[in-house]
Structure formats: C-alpha cells, structure tokens
Amino acid sequence: MSKDTILFEGVKASQLTKRELLEQVYSALEDRGYNAIDQMVGYLTSGDPSYITSHNNARNMIMKVDRDDLLEEILRSYLGKEKEDQE
Q: Quick one: which of 47, 62, 84, 87 has the most CB atoms within 10 Å?
C-alpha cells in the first residue's frame, strides 16, 4: 500500500451550471430533512445564507452566485426562455 498523498479536486461552483448548482443545493437540503423549496425561496428572497445548509458545501456554493442571476435563470426556465449560451 502506497503512503503517497493523493490530491482530489472537488467540483467548484464556477464549474457548475446554475441549474446543476441549484440541484445540488436542493439535494443537500433534502438530505438534511428540510423542505428544500421553502428554504431556497427563503434564501433567494432574503439573502440570508442560514436558510441553506452547510451540508455538502451547499451554503458556500450558492453564496458564490449572485442571487439575481439565479432568479433570472429560474424565471427563464419557468417561461421556457432559456439562453442559448448557458453559463
């Protein structure tokens, strides 16, 4: 067995699409037994990060994306007006 240190790179929020980021945050909230939609709405409307669990780094990930950008993404998806060049 090798005693060499292995470095793993985690997935950075900047490497995820906004949809993937929201899905991961949703999953982390559900894992902890929260009503994920209510918690995410609370965060998006108030900006209070305590609505988002730190489980699976969800809080740090969502705070790295501008809330207005997330709301724009959600509204575009809801209305079926997705941009062709998704970030």
A: 62
Per-residue pLDDT of the chain (87 residues; tens, 9 = 90+): 566 765 444 555 568 899 999 999 999 999 999 999 999 999 999 999 999 999 999 999 999 999 999 999 899 999 999 775 444
User: Exposure of 75 by Cβ count < 10 A (0-12 exposed, 13-18 middle, 19+ buried)?
Assistant: exposed
**Residue-range domain boundaries for the chain:** 16-75
CA distance 78 to 58: 23
What SS3 state is found at 51?
helix
Q: Specify the 3-state DSSP secondary structure of 66.
A: coil
